[in-house]
Amino acid sequence: MIEQDTVRLLRECDAGVKMGVDAIEQTLPHVKSAKLKNELAESRSEHEALDRRLQKLLDRYHDDGKDPNPMAKGMSWIKTNAKLALEDDDATVADLITDGCNMGVKSLRKYLNQYKAADEDSKKVAKDLIDLEEKLTLQMRSYL
């Protein structure tokens, strides 16, 4: 049970990190402010560093991880492009990133509760990802 919950939690974290990096990469070309661009680039680097930790844990369990749900990824792409087509500014980017972070935190909290038997290393990665998403949400507030 511990190993099964651990792998499932790690897979969800893997999909979440990939969604986060993808969202940042989709919105970065639309950013006007150098400060916002730097904050997003730094967050992308932090997501990628967390992903490397995550991959080591997945390797320990001989698991390839999980890609984001294609439907969720597609809907995110449509929403991002539609909103930016209407208003291509930093406030729109901040709004999109905030929405994505909030959805990610909600999902990760749900998975932490669902996979209670996961080992402490996996729970730590999930909590670190939640912290990263919450930090980014706070940074976005000044651009909304």
**Which residues form runs of ≥5 with pLDDT under 50?**
none
Q: Tell me about the biggest sheet?
A: none
Sheet/helix structural class? mainly alpha
End-to-end separation: 43 Å
Note the beta-strand portion: under 5%
Oligomer: single chain
Number of helices: 5
Helix fraction, binned, reads over 70%
Q: Got a strand count?
A: 0
General description of the model:
The chain has 144 residues and is mainly alpha-helical. The chain is 81% helix and 0% strand. It contains 5 helices and no strands. It has helices spanning 2-27, 34-60, 70-86, 90-114, 120-140. Helix 1 (2-27) runs antiparallel to helix 2 (34-60), helix 3 (70-86) runs antiparallel to helix 4 and helix 4 (90-114) runs antiparallel to helix 5 (120-140). The chain starts with a helix and ends with a helix.
